[in-house]
């Protein structure tokens, strides 16, 4: 008996590896990735293979910012290390600002003044030999890449030295980087960057079009930046010469921020008013083992900073913001410190890996992440959390955003919501996490744009890039979390990050790591959510006494959340994890306690669903009949704040809220005769009546926002 138990335990522990020892047969694997597993650079237990490698780069850059002409002028020496097992015959360099070059492909419109001749490159040398950029035998410039044919093969274990100088305009188009006002700039994508050569695709020759983001080498940076003497600079890495740049009193405040536990106003409104000037206008920064380097400058930004100790190391957390908006950012550094603490200690529970982080307020909408830097649009806590989290993906774990944007944006969306909910708002329910993604998914689920997640991001377009990169993968990560539970999920998640820190995983490395750590075959989840067309779609089939039958009309497994409202207005929630569908069944039975006292039941109110209308008992139509909701609420209303009209219409026994200009067509659920709500409870419509009983308007609670609409 004992030997049988031991045999069973051994079989159980080896289960994932027995399933995928030599070849993946459960779902599709591209030939390029199959080769990596055959070559031993990847392994089926999710760990980097015994022969894993990645190439590395050392940059030494001197750059000058001409704020008057909005011009970058630089020169650099680059050492490229071939750590691969391949002979390399060509070096590919990215010129990101060539996206603004006349005739080049762009996924979004840009300001006409930005469209010029791209990057002006000159004085190119490789291992001391000059390269004629007009020699098409040795130099090819296409899209945002320029390729150099090497005079001598770069063999495994060898390195080359590339020297170049360049000029380029700073774009006024507010897209991740550029000019934000006449004296404020965020500078990214600014230097000729060696492209990635990896074990999957060889050289990454995908062009930068302003849609997909980045995939960069692990690199060291030694950067000297010359800016006007009345400007302040924030950058990736560690400030090397503060005592030579900052006036004494400012430097003392900087040193205090580094050492004390206080949040210090390093540069405040009075410093700016008194005419801040540097002693020396060459700022020197170094950053080791990072994927990129960005910086920002301004002559009218305040700077607050404070240290936080993470894993016995001090991290300087900074905020840089316009002096005229200082009140909005008085607590911003503290918010960032709190987020960093919870990332490090709780979710994901991996210590923040770098020595600094700065949020710069520049963008006009959203945010953009770089190593140790974020370019944010405003004081939103969620935005601050989201952009800081990107430190883990795609920087610490160097995922390929160009092909699998969901491998970083999905995690960022998921972590933003769960950290914000748990540690900033004390909301512990997983239903609240799902709810944050649902509204962003409903317009795309089941449409022609709803394609499998494994699709390379280069093939996505405006219709589905955001959907496939953000809420869809975030929903899947939340499904995994809810299924595995906190302890096991976080064990898998942390192991994935720690195994692939400073390395570049593919989706399959993610799949296999979670399977190896959890000791489970998760193919029932991976296959439908990542590789197959289909939708999540649950429905209430019947309620007979205490037995609620829920039908899965869709193809994707989701958890089941049953919310029961009783006649005394008390609530109870029952839940099942997504693996309840793993055996191929299309119905599940839920036992409803005190069924005789049930007033109404809803299923997956907060989880993405292709058709929410059949998720209620009694049906929504029956609920309208029961309440006898007045026809007087129907008609047009004016929403003055947005200068648009909204319409309340009845169709097929349901009432809908529509705004034609915005493409909104939302079915509403009746809470009472005068109060309707969205099916996920996130929006509430309170109809106002005069003494004559006529409807005169609506008070709308749209998430955290409040609006009034007047009936026409």
Features of the shown structure:
Immunoglobulin-like, disordered N terminus, alpha+beta, Neutral Protease, domain 2, 8-stranded antiparallel barrel, 5 domains
CATH-scheme architecture of the largest domain: Orthogonal Bundle
User: Under the CATH scheme, which class of the largest domain?
Assistant: Mainly Alpha
Main pleated-sheet profile = 8 strands, mixed
Shape: globular
CATH superfamily annotation of the largest domain: Neutral Protease Domain 2
User: What is the straight-line distance between the termini?
Assistant: 80 Å
Content of β-strand: 25-35%
Helix fraction bin: 10-25%
The neighbouring-strand order within the major sheet is 5-4-8-2-1-14-18-16
Summarize the structure.
By secondary structure, the protein is α+β, with helices and mostly antiparallel strands.
3D architecture notes:
This protein is 24% helix and 33% strand. With 712 residues, the chain is of the alpha+beta class. The protein contains 15 helices and 39 strands. The strands form 8 sheets. Strands 5-4-8-2-1-14-18-16 form an 8-stranded mixed beta sheet, with no helix packed on it. It has an 8-stranded antiparallel beta barrel with strand order 32-33-34-35-36-37-38-39. A 6-stranded mixed beta sheet has the order 17-20-21-22-24-23, sandwiched between helices. Residues 1-20 have low confidence and may be disordered. The longest helix is centred in the C-terminal third of the chain and has 30 residues, at 471-500. The chain is globular.
């Amino acid at each position: 008996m004992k030997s049988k138990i031991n045999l069973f335990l051994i079989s159980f522990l080896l289960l994932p590896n027995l399933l995928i020892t030599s070849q993946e047969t459960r779902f599709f694997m591209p030939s390029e990735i199959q080769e990596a597993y055959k070559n031993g650079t990847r392994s089926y237990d999710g760990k980097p293979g015994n022969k894993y490698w990645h190439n590395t780069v050392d940059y030494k850059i001197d750059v000058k910012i001409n704020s008057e002409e909005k011009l970058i002028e630089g020169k650099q020496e680059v050492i490229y290390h071939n750590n691969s097992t391949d002979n390399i015959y060509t070096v590919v360099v990215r010129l990101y600002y060539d996206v603004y070059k006349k005739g080049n492909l762009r996924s979004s419109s840009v300001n006409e003044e930005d469209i010029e001749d791209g990057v002006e490159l000159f004085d190119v040398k490789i291992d001391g030999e000059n390269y004629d950029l007009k020699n098409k035998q040795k130099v090819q410039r296409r899209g945002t890449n320029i390729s150099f044919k090497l005079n001598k093969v770069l063999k495994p274990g060898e390195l080359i030295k590339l020297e170049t100088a360049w000029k380029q305009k700073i774009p006024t188009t507010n897209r991740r980087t550029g000019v934000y006002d006449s004296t404020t700039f965020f500078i990214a994508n600014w230097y000729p960057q060696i492209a990635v050569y990896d074990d999957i695709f060889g050289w990454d020759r995908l062009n930068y079009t302003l849609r997909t983001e980045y995939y960069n080498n692990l690199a060291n940076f030694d950067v000297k930046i010359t800016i006007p003497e009345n400007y302040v600079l924030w950058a990736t890495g560690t400030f090397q010469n503060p005592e030579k740049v900052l006036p004494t009193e400012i430097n003392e405040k900087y040193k205090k921020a580094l050492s004390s536990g206080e949040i210090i106003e390093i540069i405040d409104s009075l410093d700016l008013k008194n005419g801040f000037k540097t002693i020396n206008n060459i700022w020197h920064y170094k950053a080791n083992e990072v994927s990129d380097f960005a910086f920002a400058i301004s002559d009218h930004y305040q700077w607050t900073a404070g240290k936080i100790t993470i894993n016995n190391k001090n991290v300087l957390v900074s905020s840089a913001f316009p002096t005229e908006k200082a009140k909005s950012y008085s607590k911003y550094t503290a918010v960032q410190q709190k987020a960093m603490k919870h990332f490090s200690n709780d979710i994901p529970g991996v210590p923040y890996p770098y020595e600094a982080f700065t949020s710069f307020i520049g963008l006009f909408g959203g945010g953009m992440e770089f190593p140790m830097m974020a370019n944010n649009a405003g004081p939103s806590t969620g935005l601050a959390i989201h952009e800081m989290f990107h430190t883990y993906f795609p920087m610490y774990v160097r995922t390929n955003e160009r092909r699998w944007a969901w491998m970083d944006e999905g995690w960022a969306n998921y972590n933003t919501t769960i950290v914000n909910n748990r540690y900033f708002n004390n909301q512990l329910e997983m239903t609240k996490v799902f709810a944050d993604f649902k509204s962003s998914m409903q317009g795309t689920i089941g449409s022609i744009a709803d394609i499998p997640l494994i699709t390379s991001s280069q093939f996505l377009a405006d219709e589905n890039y955001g959907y496939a990169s953000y809420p869809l993968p975030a929903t899947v990560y939340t499904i995994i979390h809810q299924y595995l539970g906190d302890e096991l999920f976080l064990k898998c998640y942390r192991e994935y990050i720690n195994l692939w820190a400073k390395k570049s995983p593919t989706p399959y490395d993610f799949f296999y790591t979670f399977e190896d750590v959890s000791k489970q075959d998760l193919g029932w989840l991976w296959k439908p959510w990542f590789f197959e067309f289909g939708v999540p779609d649950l429905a209430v089939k019947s309620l007979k006494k205490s037995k609620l039958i829920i039908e899965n009309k869709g193809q994707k497994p989701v958890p089941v959340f049953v919310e029961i409202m009783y006649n005394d207005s008390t609530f109870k929630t029952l839940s099942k994890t997504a693996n309840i569908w793993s055996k191929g069944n299309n119905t599940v039975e839920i036992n409803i306690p005190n069924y005789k006292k049930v007033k109404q039941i809803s299923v997956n109110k907060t989880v993405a669903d292709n058709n929410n209308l059949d998720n209620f008992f009694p049906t929504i139509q029956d609920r309208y009949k029961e309440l006898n909701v007045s026809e007087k609420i129907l008609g047009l209303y004016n929403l003055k704040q947005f200068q648009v009209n909204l319409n309340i219409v009845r169709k097929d026994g349901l009432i809908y809220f529509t705004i034609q200009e915005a493409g909104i067509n939302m079915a509403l659920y009746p809470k009472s005769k005068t109060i309707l709500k969205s099916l996920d409870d996130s929006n509430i419509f309170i109809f106002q009546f005069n003494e004559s009983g006529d409807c005169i308007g609506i008070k709308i609670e749209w998430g955290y926002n409040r609006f009034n609409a007047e009936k026409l």
